[in-house]
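Putative Flp pilus-assembly TadG-like N-terminal domain-containing protein
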Amino acid sequence: MVRAGSPRTDAARNEAKKMKNLFKRFAADEKGTAYIMAAFAVVPLFGMTGLAVDYTNAVRTETQIETAAQSVALHLAKRTTLNPNIPAEDLIAEGKGLMAEMVKGRTLSYDVFQVDPSSGLVRIVAKTSIDTYLMHLFGQDELTVVGRKQAQFGRRVVEVAIAIDNSGSMDWFAGGSRKMDAAKTAAGVLIDAASDAVADYANSDLKFSVIPWHTHVSVPDEYLGGPDHDADWIDWEGRSTGHFRYLPPYKRNGANAGDMKWLMPRRETDWQIPQSRELVYYDPNRLTEVLPLEADGDGVDIDQLTRNGDTVVITRKDVFDAFSNVTWNGCFEHRAGDYRYSFDAPNDDDGDSLFVPHMAPDEYDRDGGGDSWQRNYRNDYVDDLGGDTDYDEDYLSIWNHDADFSRADIMRARTFNTAKYAVSQSTTGNWHPWGYFTGPNGRCNTAKLQGLTDNRTVIDQAIDGMDANGGTDLSIGLSWAMNTLTPWEPLAGAADFGEAEKILVFMTDGDNSAVYPDEYMTSMSSFGYLKDDPMRKGWGDDPSKAEADAALDDASKQYCTAIKDLGVKIYFVYFGTPSANATGVMNHCATSEETAIAASNEDELVAAFRKIGDDIGKLRLSHYTPPED
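Structure:
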């Protein structure tokens, strides 16, 4: 806006004197009245020319001021929205300094320079005066130029789950750095970029969760109901159809005491009888055919199961409680039945909606003989024939068993002999070659996950605590990363869907890899033993590793589909050179081609995470220009 103003400068006065003298000489010329008439005709032309020149100059200056005011208003609005604890006077001083840099050679004054941290509104009304070159001849000595701008940002809630592969291969080197160290660095870079240098996370509306994963994810006590682990979404009672897969109920009394309570359909074996309570026939996939179920089939009718006094039920809680030297480490299996690939909230109506605590069964005793090197890789921590077991050594010996039994029959019967847990005892502290003690926690040895938080110290501690040790099962990392983004249990720390931008950043350095899928040998996965075909692929007792790996790939894809269906954006980052199978999983899981990223070394990984952080930072603010008053 342009309007009249204050006295001219000395240069302007000199220019005026020159113009007056010119008109005097012209008027005094005696060559004729025609010149006088021409002179009077020129006056309007000079006026219009002067008006055009001076107003063009004013408009140019006004544009310069408004451009500067718009840039500064946007900058300050973003700053105060991201961190409303910055004093308004500090931002105003910063803004005026920026204005002076952008509008050089002009002295600016302000009718309004307002920064409101509570609303994020910034208002600037800046002005300056410019001298006229010609219009002062007509009484217009100067023009005042005014620029008005205001800007405002709304903060959007953004929740980011960062799931980092903690498998053993992350201990290898990529270039000059250990992969695990490179991943930690990259995660920090992502957080820095996304936070946009805001120190006050409490006002950022930006939260992160950190999910270390390999074949398991470990949940800390704060989400489990405290040290007693009594949160109501945990199935300690046995209501899920997955709870008793490897703890089949057994008979308490009579000639068949210690045997399975119910007859099981015959498995593949040479023993020529159609059914038996003996565990050589045990098939976890068929346990639901004999257990009493809830009316809708989505859980076990625990009241009916325990009503018969001849039935001994040992739950996973009973197993952990029986040991004096072991406590449950907070890992879970995938949910059962219709809830397997679902992120619906757990509820009291369906047992399968509850989360089953991971319990790695005690596997065939190491001193059983007959399997050479494999003995060191079994998760053996109690006596196969202890507790309420009525078997004798000969009956289940690898050397002296009935000729109709195979070695696999004996392995199965010993592994799934529930009665051996029915005694208070200590686990045998066997050291597994992969670097952990055997026991009912199995390979549940990851660093604890951290649910959503805006506390940078807590976030950094969770990242720093990660270490490489374990196999690779993408599905468990994907599912628990998503659990941190749901507003309901098991973690219940997120905003409602539709009220926050939800993002999952998933990093892995390898393919899904089934461990000994054709053996009961340190191979208990988040789905159960793959030998038992928990995904119901129809592969019998001896799946190949390729079959089992492909099943894990399919499961990972199903989790990704369910996550994306909830509106969550997935960045899938592969650290290394992905195989064809890994590329298929990555491309399926990523939300778009741009969010499917392969990083071959640490520099590329850090660059990828920085780009992701920048993308996240842009999501955090929604800019709008409010109407001027």
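The first helix runs from residue 10 to 28.
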